[in-house]
């Protein structure tokens, strides 16, 4: 099989959509479909079942994908290692994260990165929300996976890696705790606990709004410096606080409840780095992280 045939099969198997596979590979419209059809004719087997509504792997296609994917990744890793030696991707890369779920993704990526670039160490550090960009700007970090939006002249806002539904962290005895969900207008009915600090106002407003969509004021009654304080203050009945819904899996404890915010936009998490810090190490880690979120069959 030629390289372009392998890449076409892998892209379609992982996207289960010919147009998305074509866009992913940066090819002209219809090119991936033509490549797969030609390969199927040459092999004498059907690799994908196609209808007007869906694309699915046949048993033969599944077996081919399962054999090709790890071999192709190994070729990519060996090639990357050779490029690393040539380009000098060595030293230490310092990566920050702002939440436990972001930490999980960074840790997974760091493991793959070390395998591909054995001469480059990776150090990880949690970033406190009270100073979202401080460690990056000071040079303490080279790269960061954090909540968006980010609109800073000295920072590059890279790709959005994943998004999370929002929820409201409330005291266990709060009336909201008995609801299946709440809406943004409900924030006007209860005091909000926020993280204080030096983060830009636009960023803080995206996490802790000051008005509801209909313009009703939202009371910011108390502030905390660290996330652990927010948990304790909410459990004590001092207020509620917006969070990612996934926080319930990491921070559940007596005295609090997590209630979905039904009409809130999702929290987006993306990569950021300094404009003057666009190094080969940073680019390699960004590519590795993006690959970990895209090379699984959907």
TrEMBL record:
Pfam families named in the record: HTH_1 (PF00126), LysR_substrate (PF03466)
Key words, A-Z: DNA-binding, Transcription, Transcription regulation
Residue stretches spanning the membrane: none
InterPro entries: LysR_HTH_N, LysR_subst-bd, WH-like_DNA-bd_sf, WH_DNA-bd_sf
Domain HTH lysR-type: 1-58
Organism domain of life: Bacteria
Family membership: Belongs to the LysR transcriptional regulatory family.
UniProt protein name: LysR family transcriptional regulator
Source organism (scientific name): Saccharopolyspora taberi
């Amino acid at each position: 099989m030629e390289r372009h045939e392998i890449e076409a099969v892998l892209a379609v198997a992982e996207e289960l959509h010919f147009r998305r596979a074509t866009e992913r590979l940066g090819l002209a419209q219809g090119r991936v479909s033509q490549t797969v059809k030609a390969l199927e004719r040459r092999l004498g087997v059907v690799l994908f079942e196609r209808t007007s509504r869906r694309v699915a792997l046949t048993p033969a296609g599944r077996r081919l994908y399962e054999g090709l994917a790890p071999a192709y990744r190994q070729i990519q890793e060996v090639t990357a290692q050779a490029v690393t030696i040539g380009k000098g991707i060595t030293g230490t890369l310092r990566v920050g994260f702002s939440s436990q779920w972001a930490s999980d993704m960074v840790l997974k990526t760091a493991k793959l990165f070390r395998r591909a670039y054995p001469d480059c160490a990776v150090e990880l550090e949690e970033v406190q929300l009270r100073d979202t960009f401080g460690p990056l700007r000071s040079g303490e970090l080279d790269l960061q996976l954090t909540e968006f939006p980010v609109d800073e002249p000295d920072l590059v806002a890279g790709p959005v890696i994943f998004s999370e539904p929002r929820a409201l962290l409330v005291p266990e005895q709060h009336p909201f705790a008995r609801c299946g969900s709440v809406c943004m207008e409900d924030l006007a009915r209860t005091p909000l606990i926020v993280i204080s600090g030096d983060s830009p106002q636009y960023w803080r407003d995206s996490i802790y709004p000051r008005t509801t969509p209909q313009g009703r004021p939202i009371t910011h009654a108390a502030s905390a410096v660290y996330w652990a304080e927010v948990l304790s203050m909410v459990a004590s009945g001092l207020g509620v606080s917006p969070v990612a819904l996934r926080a319930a899996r990491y921070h559940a404890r007596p005295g609090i409840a997590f209630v979905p915010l039904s009409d809130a936009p999702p929290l987006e998490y993306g990569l950021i780095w300094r404009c003057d810090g666009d190094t080969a190490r940073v680019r390699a880690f960004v590519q590795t992280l993006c690959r970990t979120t895209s090379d699984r069959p959907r």
